[in-house]
Amino acid sequence: MLTMALLALLCASASASAIQARTSSYNGEYGGSGGQRFSHSGNQLDGPITALRIRVNTYFIVGSQHVGPEVPNSDHPTQCLPSFPPYPAPSLQVRYGKVWSDYVGSHLGDLEEIFLHPGESVIQVSGKYKNYLRKLVFVTDKGRYLSFGKDTGTSFNALPLHPNTVLRFISGRAGLFINAIGLHWDVYPSDCRSC
């Protein structure tokens, strides 16, 4: 009799955990293979994404000539890239709650800074890449399209797998520029009083 009761209890707990809704998902990694790994997984504990800072060199023109010293291309060691201009030098910084993450990428280029409205979240990210990110478009649940970079390269479009989830943090690889990006989705944090 005790064995039957324990077996019934075990089956009930296994069924309850099987029905529990999953909420997290991941898209990526989009981009090239160079750069050092980074992750903002710990930053999500500071709150939801509330702002974005992205730097893109405005002189970037595909196939342009350049003047100036060259730096090694981490994706192709036998090739070089111009140091400045015209190659893009995107950098990325994300504010989680009221705390900014560390910069990833270069500090060259023009800074664009976008603040999300209170309670607004990113629900889709698309962009373009070749050996590094060339364009990012963040779409919010308020219908805003926040676009950064140049429209060239291979396209990607990332959405969360589960309903009612939002972009919670990013990861990827970066060096002189953002080589690749990964997107991590989950529910909006319910305990964020100051966001």
Notable traits:
single chain, 195 residues, mainly beta, Vitelline Membrane Outer Layer Protein I, subunit A, five-stranded antiparallel beta sheet, four-stranded antiparallel beta sheet, 15 strands, 9% helix, signal, Jacalin-like_lectin_dom, Jacalin-type lectin domain-containing protein
Strand fraction: 35-45%
Could you please say which CATH topology applies here? Answer: Vitelline Membrane Outer Layer Protein I, subunit A
Q: Which CATH architecture would you pick?
A: Aligned Prism
Number of strands: 15
Shape: globular
The count of helical stretches stands at 1
H and E order: HEEEEEEEEEEEEEEE
Major beta sheet summary = 5 strands, antiparallel
Structural commentary:
The protein contains 1 helix and 15 strands, in the order αβββββββββββββββ. It has 195 residues and is mostly beta strands. It has a single domain, classed as Jacalin-like lectin domain (Vitelline Membrane Outer Layer Protein I, subunit A), CATH 2.100.10.30. Strands 3, 6, 7, 8 and 9 form a 5-stranded antiparallel β-sheet that branches. Strands 1-15-14-2 form a 4-stranded antiparallel β-sheet, with no helix packed on it. A hairpin with a 7-residue loop joins strand 4 (70-72) and strand 5. The chain is globular, with a radius of gyration of 21 Å. The termini are far apart.
